[in-house]
Amino acid sequence: MRLPENYDDHSGMSPAVVMTIVAVTFFVAAILVIVLILNHEGNRQPSAPQQESSPVILESETVDDLVSESGLRPGDLDFWDMYPPEEPEEEPVETEPPKETVESDPSTDGRHTLVEKADGTQEWVLISPYLPKNDYDFTKLVCQSDRMKYYENGVQVSYEGIDVSEVQDYIDFAAVRKSGIDFVMLRVGARGYGSGQLILDDYFADNLKRATDAGLDVGVYFFSQAVTRQEAVEEANMVIENLGDYGITYPVAYDMERISTDSARTDSLSKSERTDLAKAFLETIENAGYKTLLYGNKEWLIEQIDMSKLTSYDVWLSQSADIPDYPYQFTMWQYNRSATVDGVSGPVNLNISFVDYSEK
Fold first, then answer.
1. What confidence category does residue 118 fall into, taking pLDDT thresholds of 50, 70 and 90?
2. Which of 18, 125, 263, 335 is the one with CA 20 to 30 A from 142?
3. C-alpha distance from residue 107 to each of 111, 122, 159 (Å)
């Protein structure tokens, strides 16, 4: 610093000394300013660094390895999956509402058969695929003078019959034979549906002799009310004993049916029990060397016994109708329960046999 020329030094110090003091003062002041500035900077709080996303760490490999030696490409690295490409929104596809399931009509689907129960109600029952079906062509069934006849190739292949008991009283079997009847089924006897007692038909012995003498083929039946296997065998043995030496040509039939006008000892039997009783009777008859038949109406054969356990036995169907609708196999059909036949004083049941049992 240069002092003015008119500076009056009253201190007695020389100008050189004064200049030195001033320079030192300025130097010290500069040092103090620098120290204050540095101290102020050291006390300032550092601002928070901006948060960055964490880098993807690749295990067991260095960045240098990836760059220099790896065959990986950008598309091979996992972190690209962090940013899936945006997919375009799909437009909703219009779908048709589900179609309502149409239930088949059991009356036309061919898989059901109508059963009329004892109380008058009706039910469509599924036809079992495991039971043998009848294969009759009922367009070949002809009703002539109230008699059913079955033809094949213009030739009658069926046989006409009646079934009778003491209810018909005395019968002129010669007149019956002359009227065109081929066979007759005679009742041997019955078991009381209340008492359980075995009863021999009053006309059986006489009917058996005179029907045979008239040249009719003869079969027999027994009305059962057995409730045990022992009773069923007892009934079969009664039939065998009363046939004696007569060589009947048509089968022995087992007939168990409902008592519609009263309660019966068989009412509480189960389907399985009724089936076992029928089998016990028919086995006993068969073992004695006779042909067998199982008699019953449609409801009985379908609902009351298990036909899958009785398929080895022929069926005698009872159904008053122009055409039978029992779907399973049968060989004889009782189609009229109030017919008129020469030689019989009252109404009688008419039957058609599709089998010539005299030749079987």
1. confident
2. 125
3. 9, 12, 32
79-93, 123-137, 305-319: least confident range: 79-93
What mean pLDDT do residues 232-258 have?
Answer: 97
Spell out the domain ranges in the chain. 1-38, 132-353
Per DSSP, 309 falls in state G
Q: Can you give the pTM of this predicted structure?
A: 0.72
Q: Positive or negative, the Cα torsion across 66, 70, 75, 77?
A: negative
Strands (E), the chain: 112-116, 122-126, 141-144, 147-152, 155-156, 159-164, 183-191, 198-200, 217-223, 252-255, 292-297, 314-318, 332-339, 348-353
Task: For residues 46-70, give the mean pLDDT.
Answer: 48
Q: Is 150 helix (H, G, I), strand (E, B) or coil?
A: strand
Q: Cα–Cα distance between 292 and 252 in angstroms, integer?
A: 5
In order of 20, 135, 186, 191, 222, the CA distances from 234 in angstroms are 159, 36, 19, 10, 11
- Res 60: pLDDT: 47
- What class, spelled out in words, does domain 132-353 have in CATH? alpha beta
Angle between helices 204-213 and 229-243 (to 10 degrees): 50
Q: Is there a contact between 341 and 181 (Cβ–Cβ < 8 Å)? A: yes
**Is the pLDDT reported for residue 337 higher than 80?**
yes
Please state, in angstroms and rounded to a whole number, the distance separating the CA atoms of residues 341 and 146. Answer: 10
Pairwise pLDDT comparison (96 vs 219), residue with the higher score: 219
* Interval 55-60 mean pLDDT: 47
User: C-alpha dihedral over 202, 206, 209, 213, to 10 degrees?
Assistant: -140
Residues 6+ positions from 286 with CB-CB distance below 8 Å: 292
Ordered DSSP codes for 64-104 = HHHHHT----GGGSGGGGGSPPPPPPPPPPP-PPPPPPPPP
Here the tokens at position 98 are: 């589900």
